[in-house]
Amino acid sequence: MPSLAQTGAFLLASFLFIQVPGPSLLFTIGRALSVDRREALTSVAGNAIGLFMQVVCVAVGLAAVVAASATAYTVVKVVGACYVLWLGVQAIRHRGDARRAMQAGVPLRRGRPLWIGFTVGLTNPKTIVFFVAFLPQFTNSRAAAAPQLLLLGAVFAVIAVCSDSTWALLAARARDWFAGRPQRLDRLGGLGGALMVALGVTMLVSEQ
């Protein structure tokens, strides 16, 4: 299993990653602003199920590669760091996306919130690349890779549920607060992007 230090680093990295506005977060905010609280939270649950399905696919496919090749491990690490850097830069460049999504809203599609959330989670390109390139960096090379990847993915999904549910509740109960000061979402995107850039640089220069 991952060491205590690896687990702590993963928890921090996951939390920062989830806070960067992307498909799931924008979907959650828009959903909470256009439907009732219950449907928004059900959509969050569906999104988490979709994310974990990604984890299962990644764990099965990556386990043999990571276990058999130190070179592959290094390549995945570098790719992951470069991706996180790119994501941070994109988040800074497009920090107004969350505000625009909030103002535009999403079409009302009542009755299938779990399925809608599942579809968004399963097809989220941000997390697909994240899981493929990032999860292996927090595994213990002396233990089987697949169980560790599944555990880390489950932890990520739990953090995502907590974060997205918080956003859904805040958006549902404070529409006027967001609408009155929409620049706060811009600042969130810029701060999250800066943190991800710093994280990507740290990953590139680290020896592990």
Question: Which H/E pattern describes the elements?
Answer: HHHHHHHHHH
Task: Report the mean per-residue pLDDT as an integer.
Answer: 75
Q: Please report the distance between the alpha carbons of the first and last residues.
A: 16 Å
Query: Can you give the helix content as a percent range?
Result: over 70%
Quaternary status? single chain
Q: What is the count of DSSP helices, taking H or I runs of 4+ residues?
A: 10
Radius of gyration: 17 Å
List keywords for this structure.
single chain, 208 residues, mainly alpha, 10 helices, transmembrane helix, membrane
Secondary structure blueprint with pairings:
Elements: H1 4-19, H2 23-34, H3 37-68, H4 70-93, H5 97-104, H6 113-122, H7 125-134, H8 145-173, H9 175-180, H10 183-205
Helix pairs in contact: 1-8, 1-10, 2-3, 2-5, 2-8, 3-6, 3-7, 3-8, 4-7, 4-10
Describe the structure.
It is a single chain. With 208 residues, the chain is mainly alpha-helical. Helix content is 82%, strand content 0%. The chain has one domain. It has helices spanning 4-19, 23-34, 37-68, 70-93, 97-104, 113-122, 125-134, 145-173, 175-180, 183-205. It is a multi-pass membrane protein. One of its GO terms (cellular component) is plasma membrane. The chain crosses the membrane at residues 6-29, 41-66, 72-92, 113-138, 150-172, 184-205. This is LysE family translocator.
Please provide a brief summary of the model:
This protein has 208 residues and is mainly α. 82% of the residues lie in helices and 0% in strands.
